[in-house]
Amino acid sequence: MLTVEGLVKRFGGFTAVNNVSFRVEQGEILGLIGPNGSGKSTIFNMLSGTLIPTAGSILFDGAEIAGKAPHRIINSGIGRTFQIPRPFHRLTIFENVALAGYYGQGSHSRARADEAAERALAMVGLPTNRHAGVDGLGAAGLKKLELAKALATGPKLLLADESLGGLDEHEMDQAADMLRKIRDELGITIIWVEHIMGVLMRVVDRVMVLDHGEKISEGLPSAVASDPRVIEVYLGT
Ligand code: ADP
Ligand code: MG
């Protein structure tokens, strides 16, 4: 579904992502882990079009998307969440999600956006009524809202950035189960970024590890967790 080759991002003289290549197969959950500052969000920003790669190729369903505008990439079927949720506080929960559906599906149909919002909110377990406001949501609620907004855009590939940040242990388990349910029930392929291994390792099919912008390990969770290079990086943090 996704083939990334030789991806590079430089900010001035600093190389945030250095020659990273990987593939994502249809229907899998790929975990992408690495310490803070290792380049995870920068990769997501290039996959979703908010950053233009310095070099490299991103093939999605056989089409080159590197450097394409974010709305084109969303319309082609890549949805994302943001590490730091920034909902519109003057809109209701429903309106926030329907808005994402309206622009993200490209059809600009109010009725379709509303339907997509209802389905997405039900999927993540947020109220589907039209009145509930955003301000009552805690950390877990805001993460669910991020997921619902991404789902409302109708993605084939979902990029989930740090879905566990700020959650307690029980909420982390719930969030992990939710990502698996999104894959199992909706058939959506997922790349899931976290800086800690923890609960991610029990849900992903494969995992890839970044350090200082470079891929240092990739494979089954059990193999990666016992890779000396990975252990070294995680002991150092
Ligand atoms: P991660 O998501 O793995 O924590 P990021 O991808 O956000 O890491 O950042 C990787 C590195 O690139 C960090 O050192 C960060 O400071 C740097 N970086 C990210 N975005 C920019 C930017 N727009 N300008 C300059 N440096 C950036
Ligand atoms: Mg990040």
UniProtKB/TrEMBL annotation:
Pfam families: ABC_tran (PF00005), BCA_ABC_TP_C (PF12399). Keywords: ATP-binding, Nucleotide-binding, Transport. Gene3D superfamilies: P-loop containing nucleotide triphosphate hydrolases. GO terms for cellular component: plasma membrane. InterPro entries: AAA+_ATPase, ABC_AA/LPS_Transport, ABC_transporter-like_ATP-bd, BCA_ABC_TP_C, P-loop_NTPase. SUPFAM superfamilies: P-loop containing nucleoside triphosphate hydrolases. One of its GO terms (molecular function) is ATP binding. Residues 2-237 form the ABC transporter domain. Involved in beta-(1-->2)glucan export. Transmembrane domains (TMD) form a pore in the inner membrane and the ATP-binding domain (NBD) is responsible for energy generation. PANTHER family: ABC TRANSPORTER ATP-BINDING PROTEIN, CONSERVED COMPONENT OF ABC TRANSPORTER FOR NATURAL AMINO ACIDS-RELATED. This is ABC transporter ATP-binding protein. It comes from Bradyrhizobium icense. The lineage of its organism: Bacteria, Pseudomonadati, Pseudomonadota, Alphaproteobacteria, Hyphomicrobiales.
